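tokens incoming
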């Protein structure tokens, strides 16, 4: 499903919570844009689930190699929004 406007950090946090919840001691409600996914408690399996949810929710597919290069939510948002604009990744 396409979205009007860019995908926001709030959108991404909702997907992160749906996929793997929140690690104890990590506040996803805070300013997490530049925190490493690993510091937020998201491993490679969780990131694969996040990628699958992005396809379901926004119709955007991240290449697996590219997915694992994305270290922070801010990097993922840039990549997703470039894809949404037709400037990068494959649209599902």
């Amino acid at each position: 499903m396409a979205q009007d406007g860019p995908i926001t950090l709030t959108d991404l946090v909702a997907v992160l919570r749906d996929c793997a919840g929140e690690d104890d001691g990590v506040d996803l409600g805070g300013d997490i844009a530049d925190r490493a996914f690993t510091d937020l408690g998201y491993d490679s399996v969780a990131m694969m689930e996040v990628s699958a949810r992005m396809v379901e929710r926004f119709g955007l597919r991240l290449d697996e190699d590219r997915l694992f290069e994305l270290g922070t939510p801010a990097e993922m948002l840039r990549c997703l929004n470039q894809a949404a604009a037709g400037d990068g990744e494959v649209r599902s």
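note: Residues 44-58 form the longest helix (15 residues).
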